[in-house]
Specification:
single chain; mainly alpha
């Protein structure tokens, strides 16, 4: 959960690097929150079967769109690739599971050498 909140704190930070754990925990909690939002939509009749979307889930998706893009770009930076690689389907998943560069690279310091995020 800490990693999810850390990504939200870095709402539109496209610079620097993101560890695999930061990226994948964000993906996990983002999926779970989306499922929860969909359940709320169905429960309260906010789901539109014609479009396949619900009001709450759509609002949530737009709210986390920029942080999702930002953490994806930072994840690409961690392995020494341009953030544009995040837009390449399938290949970006392979890159997202690849261990990051050890030590500093052209995108910044190694996030593993930095302290784990804390919730105060």
């Amino acid at each position: 959960m800490n990693w999810y909140l850390e990504v939200l704190r870095k709402y539109a930070v496209f610079t620097g690097r993101a560890r695999r754990s930061e990226y994948w925990y964000f993906v996990l909690f983002n999926f779970l929150n989306s499922v929860l939002a969909s359940m709320i939509d169905v429960t309260f009749g906010l789901y539109n079967p014609e479009t396949g979307y619900g009001l709450i889930n759509t609002i949530y998706a737009f709210a986390v769109l920029i942080p999702a893009l930002a953490v994806g770009v930072r994840r690409m930076h961690d392995i020494g690739k341009s953030g544009w690689f995040f837009l390449i389907p399938i290949y970006n998943i392979f890159l997202a599971v690849t261990p990051g560069d050890v030590g500093e690279n052209k995108y910044g310091a190694d996030p593993k050498e930095q302290e784990e995020p804390r919730i105060n």
